[in-house]
């Protein structure tokens, strides 16, 4: 890891990445793409040393409360968080100043902060987003080698739901010729329903490939799925979007299963929900 002094912390959409780079090792990670101009090794985590101070200053200046986001580029709960604690500091600031929080993770480490997340949820709004790709735990260890297993993530979703914290699942990426099966898709969705998930985001059954992450992904295919790289090259060439040949059928299955289980499955509706700030203390005062 290495430390930097950041110039700012919140994006125009009130999102933040407290770290840059990741140690999860997911073979498909888009954040490796060269277009993000990361000028250091991906596993050499960049720590924004002054992030808490920048965040507090930004929150003090905000004219209106809103939802704050974490994790669009780097999972907030990488193992380094146990040592640095920037995520917990950010959550404490959100609680202190009455802002809502939504964050994306693949780690059951989020349960470390469950009491704090509950507190934020009681006064405003807190939504945890979790990525799921496969029910096969042995395959999970190949696709996402250094992160919580699917079973551990599902248990975290259950515990968050029981604590009154709403959850959203990202069903992605679904890798062509690897995990793009009806059994996998329906199985994940039924597990989500059992864990009380509010809604599932899915942009299609496939993955994106561009310069930087494509090369890394292909090296991992050669290592774990010999011969499959050639199938990808023949099928997709240099296309950005690599959709499963079964995309249409699997998307019908996705929508039908979500409808049957009562989970929200319209991306625009879920994103509107994630953006909508709620001041529960003000609501209580009105009543």
Can you put this structure into words, describing what you see?
With 287 residues, this protein is of the alpha/beta class. 43% of the residues lie in helices and 14% in strands. It has helices at 51-61, 81-84, 86-97, 114-123, 137-143, 150-162, 182-194, 213-224, 228-236, 247-261, 267-275, 280-286, and strands at residues 2-4, 15-16, 19-20, 46-48, 67-70, 100-105, 126-132, 167-171, 199-201, 206-208, 241-243. It has a six-stranded parallel sheet, with helices on both faces.
Radius of gyration: 19 Å
As laid out across the biggest beta sheet, the strand order is 2-5-6-7-8-9
Low-confidence stretches: none
Helix-strand string: EEEEHEHHEHEHHEHEEHHEHHH
Q: Compute the average pLDDT.
A: 95
Computed structural class: alpha/beta
Report, as a whole number of angstroms, the end-to-end distance: 50 Å
What spatial form do the alpha-carbon principal axes imply? globular
Q: Bin the helical content.
A: 40-55%
The amount of beta strand, in percent, is 5-15%
Determine the number of helices (DSSP H or I, runs of at least 4 residues).
12
Topology, number of strands:
11
Q: How would you characterize the largest beta sheet? A: 6 strands, parallel
């Amino acid at each position: 890891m290495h430390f930097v002094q950041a110039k700012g912390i919140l994006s125009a959409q009130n999102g933040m990445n407290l770290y840059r780079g990741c140690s999860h090792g997911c073979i498909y990670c888009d954040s490796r793409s060269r277009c993000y101009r990361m000028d250091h090794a991906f596993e050499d985590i960049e720590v924004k040393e002054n992030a808490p101070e920048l965040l507090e200053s930004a929150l003090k200046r905000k004219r209106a409360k809103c939802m704050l986001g974490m994790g669009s580029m780097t999972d907030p709960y990488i193992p380094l968080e146990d040592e640095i604690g920037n995520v917990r500091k950010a959550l404490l600031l959100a609680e202190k100043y009455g802002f809502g929080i939504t964050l994306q993770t693949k780690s059951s480490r989020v349960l470390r902060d469950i009491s704090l997340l509950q507190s934020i949820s009681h006064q405003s709004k807190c939504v945890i987003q979790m990525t799921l790709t496969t029910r096969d735990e042995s395959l999970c260890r190949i696709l996402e080698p250094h992160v919580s297993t699917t079973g551990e993530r599902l248990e975290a979703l259950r515990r968050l739901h029981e604590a009154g914290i709403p959850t959203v699942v990202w069903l992605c990426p679904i890798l062509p010729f690897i995990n793009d099966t009806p059994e996998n898709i329906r199985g994940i969705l039924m597990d989500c329903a059992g864990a009380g998930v509010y809604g599932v985001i899915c942009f299609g059954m496939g993955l994106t490939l561009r310069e930087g992450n494509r090369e890394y992904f292909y090296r991992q295919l050669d290592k774990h799925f010999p011969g499959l790289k050639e199938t990808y090259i023949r099928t997709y060439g240099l296309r950005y979007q690599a959709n499963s040949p079964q995309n249409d059928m699997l998307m019908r299955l996705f929508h039908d299963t979500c409808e049957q289980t009562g989970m929200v499955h319209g991306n625009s509706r879920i994103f509107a929900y994630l953006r909508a700030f709620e001041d529960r203390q003000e609501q209580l005062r009105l009543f």
